[in-house]
């Protein structure tokens, strides 16, 4: 096999997260993770779940990078930056070093060719920043929706790129493997990211695109309880019409999505998703009209269209919308039973 | 005496540091440190109770379904809600998929790569172990990852995605399946069975499940060459290194019971202490005398538990609390589950040599066979067209305990609801039991005791025996400190 270029050295650290992004990643398919790394020419300097090196060997790798003795091409952080208590970072100490992980991450980021925030925690703070955020969790370049985070709004890695935010809770393995591959191929530039520095390859889409419930949505044939087949926007808190991701056109675990699983989209790729201000699976309404309306849609239009389409809902959809499996099939007019 | 700090510990889920005092080529004392605190119990305060189903799975990405199951059970108890049979089956299937995938991930990616370390380069078995189990580069990971990913298609079907599904609810599963999908699930399971039988065991699941004594296991292993299957390969390395002498269990064994259908559990609830005992859930309390939390009392029962960080607390060295059963330490995990279930092979292993590294791994691999076979039955028992879920209102004030078994052991969630909001939420994770620090009596936790006496080869800075012992528990540190 011939290599097109020098291997890219990747280092992966974890802080205030659940490890779920890594676990999702090792489920990569077509091809699997190891084949993907090989295809992209990525050499894993160290990953906490995958590598052999432990303890002192690891600290030596980190120190060599900080001292400039080892090149670091891609730094991935999974999990939020833990700044608490009182900005000391002591809620997460790097084992074996007596130093906050926060400090290591800042030093390593300064040396990295690209810095990749893996998951909503590393991008924005994510679930770890929920509630009163007593642990002072934040992302690498954002603190919720505010710019800043650990590295500050002006941070640029050696490549000149800002932190690349593969937001999602967890990430889809494809979101990350494609991004890494594009970076390795030299095809990942400033035009590849959106306003939250998320790869457009998956945030050009709305979760709503390709949702199997689209026909129910068209006629406002709504699910009333979890497990019903209808559209979950009206009653069950679905944010698919605002959430940016390709979950319904890119299969999860061989062929699922949250919506296919029978529960609403909670917009986990967005900063602040962890504090929706209402119960996740209920739609807040003002005088019967859902508060969070679809992206790009004027409210008056939505209301007018919704009442129109509601009046025209075919019985098939009305019935199926509140059943847990399809009970009424479409009718083929050419064929009489 | 020398002191050694081992960390960062990789190929465990989450962060771990182990402080060792070494004398005479052995570990004399061990302190186990969980160095990360996130505070999920505090995040949940004041939230609508149902939202626990969004937050709780994100405690841990490796056992996110177990967290969902525990949260859903706690809510179900508060609501007085029971699942329809399809709901139980679907939740069992999702849960079992995660638990089996965890066992495989642990064996192939976390545990076995240690035998490919240079320390063992002089051993007769080293070349084969290195070829098969080296981290990232070994042929085993190459075989296992695609098989695991395809097995996880069950998650796409039944749970929408993994990790962090919302399909598991107090009253069942949000995903009803059709007959066509039941057929697909059977096909996925039979493909997975083929991987297990060809690669992991080199024999049928039935044969593995029926091994009933140490002698039979040894006889079975000797039937073919060690490298003919990964299980035999492990057994052979284990014999060479005498892993039965490593990492002895010190306390009693506990299981919350797993996989219920119609009131019957596949693995029952109980305690094993040289024999089967009933488990009194009310005898559980968490001690924080050596954990970095503020406390009025030394030990509190989970419904009254508190989680207020106190990073400068005198004498405290870990974010992990110290759960105790009747004041005693308990080991949890596959070994405990199979002892409490009374599996003859596991009973025999422990009656001969006690709990140890070898027995923990055997119990885990045995469980993969047992659970896969049970899954085949559950898929067949699903009835399309019948309900998968029931609904009920959430009471304004109530309490509930949700007890489940994650791959690595007993997991409990305790919720108290007041004024329609979460007033207290306490979580005790498996690794919190196994990796607990000392308690008010100064009794070290199970791992701390298992490490005492571990051999340290001269010049070792990351003693490989310590690595085997730690990983034999399949720890998950993000759960521990939630
Ligand atoms: S983003 Fe979600 S899945 Fe990823 S580490 Fe954070 S909590 Fe876990
Ligand atoms: S359920 Fe959500 S994503 Fe699907 S059609 Fe309705 S609004 Fe769109």
Structure explained in plain terms:
The complex is a heterodimer of chains A (337) and B (482). Chain A is α/β, with parallel strands linked by helices. Chain A has ten helices and 13 strands. Chain A has a five-stranded parallel β-sheet. A two-stranded antiparallel sheet of chain A has the order 4-8. In chain A, helix 2 packs parallel to helix 6. Chain A starts with 7 loop residues before the first strand and ends in a 16-residue tail after the last helix. Chain B has 18 helices and 17 strands. Chain B starts with a strand and ends with a helix. A four-stranded mixed β-sheet of chain B has the order 10-9-6-14, covered by helices on one side. By secondary structure, chain B is an alpha+beta fold. Helix content of chain B is 41%, strand content 17%. Chain B has a single domain, classed as Orthogonal Bundle (Cytochrome-c3 Hydrogenase, chain B). The mean pLDDT of chain B is 96. Classes of the chains: A alpha/beta (337), B alpha+beta (482). Chains A and B meet through helix 1, helix 3 and strand 5 of A and helix 4, helix 6, helix 7 and strand 5 of B. Chain B: GO terms for molecular function: ferredoxin hydrogenase activity; nickel cation binding. Chain B: Its cofactor is Ni(2+); Fe cation. Chain B: Belongs to the [NiFe]/[NiFeSe] hydrogenase large subunit family. Chain B: Keywords: Iron, Magnesium, Metal-binding, Nickel, Oxidoreductase. Chain B: It is found in: Cell envelope.
């Amino acid at each position: 096999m011939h290599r097109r270029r020098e291997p890219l050295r990747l280092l992966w650290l974890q802080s205030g997260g659940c490890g779920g992004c890594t676990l999702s990643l090792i489920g990569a398919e077509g091809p699997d993770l190891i084949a993907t790394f090989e295809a992209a020419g990525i050499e894993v300097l160290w990953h906490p779940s995958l590598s052999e090196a432990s303890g002192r060997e690891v600290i030596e790798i980190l120190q060599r990078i900080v001292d400039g003795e080892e090149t670091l091409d891609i730094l991935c952080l999974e999990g939020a930056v833990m700044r608490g208590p009182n900005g000391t970072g002591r809620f997460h100490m790097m084992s074996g070093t007596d130093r906050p992980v926060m400090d290591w991450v800042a030093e390593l980021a300064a040396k990295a060719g690209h810095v990749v925030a893996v998951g909503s925690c590393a991008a924005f703070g994510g679930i770890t920043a929920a509630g009163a955020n007593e642990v002072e969790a934040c992302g690498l370049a954002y603190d919720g929706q505010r710019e800043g985070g650990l590295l500050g709004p002006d941070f640029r890695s050696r490549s000149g790129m800002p932190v690349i935010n593969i937001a999602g809770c967890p990430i889809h393995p494809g979101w990350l493997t494609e991004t890494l591959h594009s970076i390795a191929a030299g095809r990942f530039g400033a035009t590849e990211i959106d306003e939250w520095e998320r790869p457009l390859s998956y945030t050009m889409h709305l979760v709503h695109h390709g949702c199997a419930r689209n026909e129910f949505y068209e006629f406002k044939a709504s699910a009333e309880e979890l497990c019903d087949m209808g559209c979950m926007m009206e009653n069950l808190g679905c944010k698919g019409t605002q959430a940016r991701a390709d979950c319904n056109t890119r299969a999860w675990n061989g062929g699922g999505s949250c919506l296919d699983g029978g529960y609403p989209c909670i917009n986990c790729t967005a900063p602040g998703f962890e504090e929706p201000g209402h119960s996740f699976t209920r739609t807040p309404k003002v005088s019967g009209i859902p508060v969070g309306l679809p992206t790009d849609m004027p409210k008056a239009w939505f209301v007018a269209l919704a009442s129109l389409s509601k009046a025209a809902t075919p019985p098939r959809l009305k019935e199926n919308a509140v059943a847990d499996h399809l009970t009424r099939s479409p009718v083929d007019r050419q064929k009489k039973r | 005496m020398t002191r050694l700090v081992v960390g960062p510990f990789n190929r465990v889920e989450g962060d771990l540091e182990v402080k060792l005092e070494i004398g005479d080529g052995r570990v004399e004392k061990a302190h186990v440190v969980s160095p990360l605190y996130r505070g999920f119990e505090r995040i949940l305060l004041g939230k609508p109770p149902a939202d626990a189903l969004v937050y709780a799975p994100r405690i841990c990405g490796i056992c996110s379904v177990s967290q969902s199951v525990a949260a859903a059970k706690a809510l179900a108890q508060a609501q007085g809600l029971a699942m329809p049979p399809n709901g139980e089956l679907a939740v069992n299937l999702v849960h079992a998929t995660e638990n089996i995938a965890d066992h495989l991930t642990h064996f192939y990616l976390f545990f076995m790569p240690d035998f490919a370390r240079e320390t063992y380069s002089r051993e007769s078995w080293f070349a084969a172990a290195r070829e098969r189990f080296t981290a990232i580069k070994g042929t085993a990971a190459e075989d296992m990852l695609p098989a695991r990913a395809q097995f996880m298609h069950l998650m796409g079907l039944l749970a929408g995605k993994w990790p962090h599904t919302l399909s598991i609810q107090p009253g069942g599963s949000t995903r009803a399946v059709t007959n066509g999908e039941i057929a697909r699930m059977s096909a996925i399971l039979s493909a997975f069975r083929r991987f297990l039988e060809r690669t992991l065991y080199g024999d049928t699941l039935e044969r593995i499940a029926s091994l009933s004594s140490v002698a039979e296991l040894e006889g079975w292993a000797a039937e073919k060459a060690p490298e003919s299957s990964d299980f035999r390969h492990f057994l052979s390395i284990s014999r060479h290194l005498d892993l039965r002498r490593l990492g002895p269990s010190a306390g009693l064994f506990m299981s919350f019971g797993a996989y219920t259908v119609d009131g019957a559990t596949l693995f029952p609830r109980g305690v094993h202490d040289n024999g089967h005992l009933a488990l009194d859930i009310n005898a559980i309390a968490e001690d924080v005398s050596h954990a970095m939390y503020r406390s009025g009392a030394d030990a509190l029962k989970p419904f009254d538990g508190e989680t207020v960080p106190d990073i400068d607390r005198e004498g405290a060295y870990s974010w992990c609390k110290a759960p105790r059963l009747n004041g005693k330490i308990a080991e949890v995990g596959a070994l405990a589950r199979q002892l409490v279930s009374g599996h003859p092979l596991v009973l025999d292993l422990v009656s001969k040599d006690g709990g140890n590294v070898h027995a923990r791994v055997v119990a885990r691999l045995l469980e993969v066979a047992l659970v896969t076979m049970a899954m085949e039955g559950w898929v067949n028992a699903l009835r399309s067209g019948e309900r998968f879920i029931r609904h009920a209102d959430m009471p304004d004030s109530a309490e509930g305990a949700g007890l489940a078994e994650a791959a690595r052991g007993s997991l409990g969630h305790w919720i108290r609801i007041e004024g329609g909001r979460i007033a207290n939420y306490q979580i005790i994770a498996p690794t919190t039991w196994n990796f607990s620090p000392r308690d008010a009596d100064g009794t070290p936790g199970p791992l701390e005791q298992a490490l005492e006496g571990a051999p340290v080869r001269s010049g070792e800075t990351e003693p490989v025996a310590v690595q085997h012992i730690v990983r034999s528990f399949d720890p998950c540190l993000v759960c521990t400190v939630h």
